[in-house]
Every structure is written in C-alpha cells, then in structure tokens.
C-alpha cells in the first residue's frame, strides 16, 4: 500500500475522528505548551547539575511518559496490532503537524517517511532545536513498547537531526526460539 502523493496527513484521507482517550488538543499544540515550561526548567537544571546530567534525567522522564502514553493508547485502541496502532495517529497529525508517505501498512509492518515535521519547525522557532529530538523523537520507540512490547520501531534518521526525512519502520518482533 503506497501513498505516493505528499500531502498533509489530515488531507491524505477523510479526517478520522479523534481516538477515544486522545488529548483534546493535538500533540503539536501540547508539545508547544510543554516546551514553554521545559525551556526555563532545563536552563535552571543545567546551571545546577550540568548539561549531561540534565539531559539524562530529561530523557529518562520523557521516555517513561511515552511508555505510559503507549499503554493508554493500547487500552483505547481497536487492537494492539500495528493496524490498531496506525489507527491511533490522529492526535500526532492534527493541525497538519506531519506530512508523510505511507510505504506499507498491515499487522506485520507499518512503514512511512515523514517529509515535513512541524514539531521540528516549532522547536527551532522556540530556540530549542538542540532539545527537539529528546523532547519529541525520543518518545517514539518507547511509545510503541508501551503500546505492545511485541512491536518495535527502527528509525535511522530524523528531520529534527537534519536528515531529508524521518524513516519510521514499525515491525512485529520475531519470536525467540
């Protein structure tokens, strides 16, 4: 299944209703609100603890929040398959936050390339380009783990880090044994 036309996610199909339990604001707006609070906190903690310790704590907290959000999504999803996960993306794509090309979408693989990311643009506008990966991209792998530990994300590049696109490749983990 390929969606070769690059369109804002909200325009690539009929706009789905927000998933049960989804935030009342889109994730882009939520991240903007969080960034306004986090920016002065990070600067204060860096002054006290240094940058390395501050970023380590920030990364740990952000990942745990993502894991918990994944668990919440799983409780609200029609299934905990990759198809079920894909059906829950509306809050992240709301307000044309992402433009992406879907390469494959089924219960075994969900693959797409993000070609425009308003999250990255927002963090740059706010003077937080150096924290954007930690505050947003860093959540993706632990979000899917929280959603279903049998699923995993492989991503080798992000727009946030200067690549031409983000390559999201979700798969079901191979059974051991």
Model description:
Helix content is 46%, strand content 16%. The protein has helices at residues 27-49, 51-76, 82-86, 90-93, 118-125, 132-137, 139-147; strands spanning 98-105, 109-117, 151-154, 166-172. Strand 1 and strand 2 (109-117) form a beta hairpin. The two termini are 31 Å apart.
Topology, element by element:
Blueprint: H1 27-49, H2 51-76, H3 82-86, H4 90-93, E1 98-105, E2 109-117, H5 118-125, H6 132-137, H7 139-147, E3 151-154, E4 166-172
Antiparallel strand pairs: 1-2, 2-4, 3-4
Helix pairs in contact: 1-2, 1-5, 2-7
Low-confidence stretches: 1-19
Helix and strand sequence = HHHHEEHHHEE
Q: Quick check: average pLDDT?
A: 89
Distance between the termini: 31 Å
Radius of gyration: 16 Å
By DSSP (H or I, 4+ residues per run), the number of helices equals 7
Q: Give the oligomeric state of the chains in this entry, treating copies of one chain as homo and distinct chains as hetero.
A: single chain
**Beta-strand proportion:** 15-25%
Strand order of the largest sheet: 1-2-4-3
The tally of strands reads 4
Question: Level of helix content?
Answer: 40-55%
- Structural class comes to alpha+beta
C-alpha geometry: globular
Main sheet record: 4 strands, antiparallel
